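Batch manifest, entry 17 of 40.
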Amino acid sequence: MDEIMFKNMCKEIMRECKNRSIKVSDRFIAYYVKLLLLNPAWNISLTNAEELSRTDLQNFVKYIYTTLEIKDSPNVVTLKMQLYFQCNFDTNVNIISDYRNKLNTQLQPLEQEILNFKSIEDDDLQKLLKLIVNYLTLLHGLGNPSSDQVYQQAETALKSVFYKSELIEFILEENHDVKIDHLNMLSKLVAGIRVFNQRAMKSGEGIEDLPSLLAQANEQTHSDLHYILHDIMNFVNALTTAIDLGFIIVRDDEEDDGTLKLVLEDQNKYGSYIDYLIDLLVLYRQYEIFIRQIIDEVELSKGKLEAMFEQLENILKETYSIIYHKTMVQASIIYPQFIKIAEIWYIMQNEVIELSNINDTVENLKIYSEQTNRYEDIIYQIIARRQILTDEDRMEKTGMYRKAMLYCKNTIILNPGKIPNFDQEPLELLGFCPWKFVQSGGALIPGNPGNGVVKIKKRYYVFSCVEAILEFIKDPERNVCRVLELARLKPEVIDILRLYDQLDEVKTIYQLVKPIVKVIATADENIQTEDHPERSHIDPEYMWNVWDWKRKALKMADVAKRLTKSTQTNATSSRGSIKVQTHFLKDHNYQTKKDAGTCVPTPSTFIFGLRGRKDDKQFIITLTRPIEEKICADLTENCRK
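Output type: C-alpha cells
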C-alpha cells in the first residue's frame, strides 16, 4: 500500500467531512478506510496511481461521509468504540510510558538546572540540595515538596545517602550521563528510604498508602464492571432472543434440493426495524466483549497486586532485620534493599495509572453505547410472552449431535467431547452461528457445540440448531466464503469476529461466492408430426393488385354518400314468432345396395374368305350371341327351379 496515496485519500475524506460539519479524527478515518479497502469491489488501488479511477475514488469518499453523517448509527458507533478501545486499552504499556514521559518532560527544566549547576559555595550547595530534593520527591510522587514536613523528611533521607563531599563531586563531574545515572540512583534510594519509613510508621508525610488504596480501588472497579456487564447481558439476551424469534426457517422455493433459508416471521410489522436491531446487537456484543476483557485485566491485576504486596512485606521485613538495633550498615548491603522497595513502589504507581485508565475507558465505552436508540419497546413486542434465553440457557440445552449425525453420515461433524482440549480451542466467529449470520444479514446468534462441531482448514465452527449445521455442511467452503463476503459489506464485524487476516488474504478476489449454474437435462427424442397440421385456406376475396383495393375503396366511398331508408310492407308486418315441436334424432339402419354379378356373352368372330379365294374380298362375321338370349335362358332356368 502506498502510504502517500493513503494519506492523501484520508485528507480528502477529512476535508469533505469538515465541509459537512462531521467531527471525526484522522485516526478514525484511517481505521475505517483500511477496513473498507478489504473489499475489492471499491476498485481502489493504492499500489498504482494510474489504475485509480477518479470516479471510483469520489464514490468511495461519498459513501464514507454519507455513512458518517448518521451519528447515531450502530455501525458507526461500533467502529468508533473499537478504535477507542484499541488506542486506550490494548496499549496500556504505552499509556504508562506516555505518562512517565510527560512527567519527565515537566521535570526536565528542573533536571537540566541540577545537571548544569556549577557553583560549590555553601549557600549554593544548599540551593542545589533543595533542587535535588524537589526533583526526587516529584519524580516518584512522594508528596508535595512545598510542604515543610515532606521536604524535611525527603531532605533527611537524601542526606543519609548523599554527603556534602559527594554533592561537590557531583557538581564537578563533567559527564552528563554519569550525573543522570547518579541522580536516578539517588531517586531510588530516597524513595526506598521514605517508603520504608512510611511502612514502619516512623514518618512518610505525603505518601499515600498505595497497597490499601489499590486493593480498595481494584475491588470497587471489579464490582462496578460486573454490574455494568449484568446490565449489558440483560439487554443482549433480550435483543438476541427477539432477533432469533423474528426469523423462521423455511424451504427455499427457488431451489430444488430442499435448501432451507431464514425469513422474517412478520415482514410488514418488524421489517423496518430488524436491520437496525441486528446492527445494535453487534454494537452491544462488542461492548460486552470489551467489558469482559477489562474484567479479566482487573482480575489479573488483582493477582499481581496480591503477589506484589506480599513481596513488599517480605522485603520490608528483611530490611528491618538488617538495620534492627544497628547504628551503621554497609551501603552494599542496605542499598539494594531500598532499591527493591523503590522498584516495587514504582510498579504500584504504574498499577494506579493503569487502573485509572481502565475506569476512564469504561466510562467512555458507556458514553458510546448511549449514543444509539435501543428500541426496547419493539424488542419486547417481538418477544411477547416467550422466554428470554441467556447464553447459558442456549449452552445448557441438550445437544443435538446425534440427531445431526442421523441426517448426515459425513465425518465432517465432530463430537466436541472427543476433540482433545476443545475448551482451549478458539472458535471461529467467537462461537456465533455462521449460517444464521449469513441468512439473517449479520445477526450474532450464539452456537451450541452440543449440536456438533465442523472443522474446516483447522478452524472450528459451531451452530445454533441442527438445521443450520446440516445446511452449512452441504458446501462448507462456499458457506465460509459467504461469511467473508458479508463481512466485506459490514466492516464493523471484522474486528469483533477476528476476520481481518482472512479478508486480507482474499482482498484481491472480487467475487468470493460464485453463482451456481444449473445444468438443464436434455435428451434426443423422435416425434412423428403431420405434414400439414394446419389446413390450407384460400381467401376468395383476396386481392393482390393495389388498384383493386383502390377501386373497392371508391365504391365504399360512393356507398357512404347514399341515403338508407326503411319501409314497412304488408308481407313483413304479418311475420311473427312460430312455435315448432321438435324431437330428438333416432338411429336407424338402411340397406343401400346389394352386391351381384352379371354374365355377358363371350365375344366370337369369324373371318370369311381366307380359304379358296384369290381376291381380297374377305370380311368378318360376328358369331357372338345376343345378350337377350342369355337373359331369357337364365330366367327360364330360374323359373324351373
